[in-house]
Design goal:
- By secondary structure, the chain is α+β, with helices and mostly antiparallel strands.
- It has two helices and five strands; from the N terminus they run ααβββββ.
- A five-stranded mixed beta sheet has the order 3-2-1-4-5, covered by helices on one side.
- The relative contact order is 0.14.
Length: about 130
């Protein structure tokens, strides 16, 4: 949610057509009122299951990585309320042979210091 530029959503993508198309879809299909829904729906695509109705986690901060067809996918979630930064979700798909360690990504949320996730799943193991 972009509170600075008006109450709405913002999507930043790479330059390729698939990423731009996904951004357009996300803007039209993401709920501002139920912000937990988007990361939950991504995780469900990866095989995770959640009770219905989808729980609303107000202070959700985590990252999850999975290997799919020789490409690492990483979902980063920071739905905490740290002003001035706004809550953010990032889904990254890395080129074959790259991952979140070898590829340089901007900070998920501007105005915040990097923080260790409260809990995360990386490569199939829990990191508490």
């Amino acid at each position: 949610m972009d509170f600075e530029g008006g109450f709405g959503l913002q999507c930043v993508s790479s330059d390729d057509e698939a990423a731009r198309s996904l951004c357009g879809w996300l803007i039209e299909n993401t709920s501002m009122e139920s912000r937990s829904n988007l990361p939950v729906r991504v995780l469900e695509c990866w095989g995770y299951r959640f009770p219905r109705p989808i729980p609303s986690w107000g202070e959700w901060r985590a990252d999850v990585s999975t290997l799919l067809d020789e490409r690492w996918l990483t979902l980063e979630v920071d739905l905490t309320e740290d002003a001035p930064a706004v809550p953010a979700v990032r889904l990254s798909s890395f080129a074959e042979g790259e991952d979140e360690i070898t590829a340089e990504l901007p900070k998920l949320r501007s105005g915040t210091e990097p923080r260790v996730p409260v809990a995360g799943v990386s490569r199939g193991y829990w990191n508490d």
